[in-house]
Amino acid sequence: MKTIKILLPFLTLILLFGSCSKKGKKSGGALAGDVAEKVYVAPGEHDEFYAFISGGFSGQLSVYGLPSGRLFKVIPVFSLDAEKAYGFNEETKPMLNTSFGFVPWDDAHHPDISQTNGELDGRWCFINGNNTPRIARIDLSTFETAEIIEIPNSAGNHSSSFITENTEYVVASTRFSIPIPQKDMPISEYKSNFKGTMSFISVDKETGNMDIKFQLLMPGFDYDLSHPGRDKSHGWFFFTTYNTEEANSLLEVNASQNDKDFIAAVNWKKIEEYVNNGGGKKVAAKYAHNVYNDHTHTATSTIKDQVVMVDPRDVPGAIFFLPTPKSPHGCDVDPSGEYIVGSGKLAAELTVHSFSKMLKAIEGKKFDGEAYGIPILKYDEVLAGVVKQPGLGPLHTEFDGKGYAYTTFFISSEVVKWKLGTWEVVDRKPTYYSVGHLMIPGGNSRKPFGKYLVAMNKITKDRYLPTGPEVNQSAQLYDISGDKMELLLDFPTIGEPHYAAGCPASLLTDKSKKIYKLEDNKHKYAITKEADAKVVRSGNEVHIYMSMIRSHFAPDNIEGIQVGDKVYFHVTNLEQDYDVPHGISMIGANTSELLIMPGQTETFIWEPKQVGVWPFYCTDFCSALHQEMQGYVRVSPKGSSTPISYTLDGESTSGK
Length: 656
Ligand SMILES: [Cu+2]
Hints:
ten-stranded mixed sheet
């Protein structure tokens, strides 16, 4: 017995430091022998889940398979994409228009998949642009960005883009408070003058189209993350706050003074009703609304000029503050809708609030003062329980649907599994290293698929072959189907993955689009057969109506172009076969290539600067004769008498 007592501390030490001593070697040495089998997806086989992982500062959303960790696609959302010409071709440039002009780069943070009755329905994925506040909707049949709406009266669009359980709203809120409306004023007058907003963006049930239904004018705190109520708490939305001190400088000290910040509980159904009855004030606000049309293959950008602003004091009983220690980050609601987990980054314990206790406390008016007219509920009256000494630096919690929660701890670099209701820690596993968010497919819904957990780590260090000073960020896959979590796989990620959403592959595979039908192509410059290809001059603008099909362009020889012309290549891919895109590249053009899907039309502009005969070619290897897929443009001096002419089917035709 004595020996065991003496040995135990040593064993613990060995366990604790065992992983560190393996640095540089295969830390997978601790893995069980059958781990490889669990992530191995044989050639030709498909993964069980999709994972949509945000690209952070890359402004994109990447699509992976689980359990293999294979990368399938990078979906361009808020940033130019040189692989797919998003934001380079004329059709998608309007997608990146904002009230600040063309903003071709953003910081994409939190994807969320649409839901019906609280369960993932796989129709759309939403994601926020954090820097120049925007929300995007990605169509999960095409895996393309279908719509982007800018959020006015916002800065640091961080507690976004989370959706209610019938996708009634996608919700966005401000991390940075600002003067609303914006004006020139001293920063030192921040306190009580700067404000935050919460935006409720309605989503059309059929089309998915977004529209800002209302904005809530909130106290000047930092709103960090948010999640909707579900099931019994459907109709409410919860937001974490920090900097309730309203500091405007040295926040690392000045925003950590209060023992407790808040979770704001918003009864959006009540506010919706108020707005539907004419409540709220229409205020001037300039913001862009950009929509891509699958038939014209073209995006339009509309600048809108007002929003409905609601002052919470005008809707009593709609918003309450739940005191939550200490600078909480994650704000997560369990599948039953009863528990609201607030992860206080600087707190020793993990705080869990109870929705039913909250309702009782509201009814009994158990208030502890108010902040800017919003009642603060008594901490003890809303508390469901605390997870004691769970780890250091809790950030984000998701759920497995089997009564357990999984929380990431940034400082102690681990994922901790604990039981809802008893609050006991039942398992913990290290992450490599410093995990931010985690994802369980469906973990933010009534019906999680509690088989895998993906940890998104901020630091990679020695996990991969070195690639200079910068190493890719990393995700790690854990099997959570048993009592104990099991680390299965490391895989590198694109950009900085802030957050992810996942769903069973079966939800998306059947409706994944294969081609765009040519007969549905309503692009202004589309042609549906080669015989319609033509070149039309209008002043110094030349429009080339071009087609591509294995393995040639029509026309492939063009003459009569002059230096100083603005030449529009409108290129239609006539293929009607799955997975046969073509590309086009023209020497000296600002856009090196367009990648055009079967049935789709895209446009680039070429402004020839030099006399000569200049080639163009297909950039996407499309057939055995791909290298033959090429053509020439003859450029004559400005004012030359060489008429427009072009070849169709090898014959020369004169143009107009
Ligand atoms: Cu080709």
